[in-house]
């Protein structure tokens, strides 16, 4: 039987870095992990509740679609007396336009989940260079298409097309569940280019998420091969 492993954890220390950078005593390590999870949940919920609404057509695809305020990843740095939260986003429209009042409002909301209240919290926004080479942003686009009842195969092909325009060397998109309302769950996937999962030195970005449709919950996985480390 085959054994699968997360492509990001498989490449830690080579082409991938940790998204949480801090040191804690063994007795307080679990508390630190729970705090990181609460910080990320607060940030995602705040942005989801305040983002600009997106409108997609079921029958017409735009060649270049911007997905506003989509989070790529959230990095957390902790030290003695400070907590730095760096939000990497593609097309950051809402938070950039509302600076600094929106950032201050977000900081007040995140401070409620910090275990130690005497630490200084700093939140910063950074825009990523090629948003459509990021699997999280591609997954956000794919979930929106599936919620709007677009054909899953057409949505997968458009997702691959967006990654190709961003000069990705390879991409694989997989959807699992009751696709198009079928009685039995199945797995459908499409791949374009090379996706060498067994080579540790390759830069593979991975995303796994779910989307709730009228037929049930679908699982989405996206692998993106960007370049090779020297």
From TrEMBL:
UniProt keyword list: Chloroplast, Plastid, Ribonucleoprotein, Ribosomal protein, RNA-binding
Annotated InterPro entries: KH_dom-like_a/b (IPR015946), KH_sf_prok-type (IPR009019), Ribosomal_S3_C_sf (IPR036419), Ribosomal_uS3 (IPR057258), Ribosomal_uS3_bac-typ (IPR005704), Ribosomal_uS3_C (IPR001351)
Domain Small ribosomal subunit protein uS3 C-terminal positions: 143-224
Name of one Pfam family that matches: Ribosomal_S3_C
GO biological process, one term: translation
GO cellular component: chloroplast; cytosolic small ribosomal subunit
A single MF term (Gene Ontology): structural constituent of ribosome
Keyword Ribosomal protein found: yes
Subcellular location(s) of the protein: Plastid, Chloroplast
Metal-binding in keyword set: no
Subunit structure: Part of the 30S ribosomal subunit.
Family, per entry: Belongs to the universal ribosomal protein uS3 family.
Protein name: Small ribosomal subunit protein uS3c
Lineage of origin: Eukaryota, Viridiplantae, Streptophyta, Embryophyta, Tracheophyta
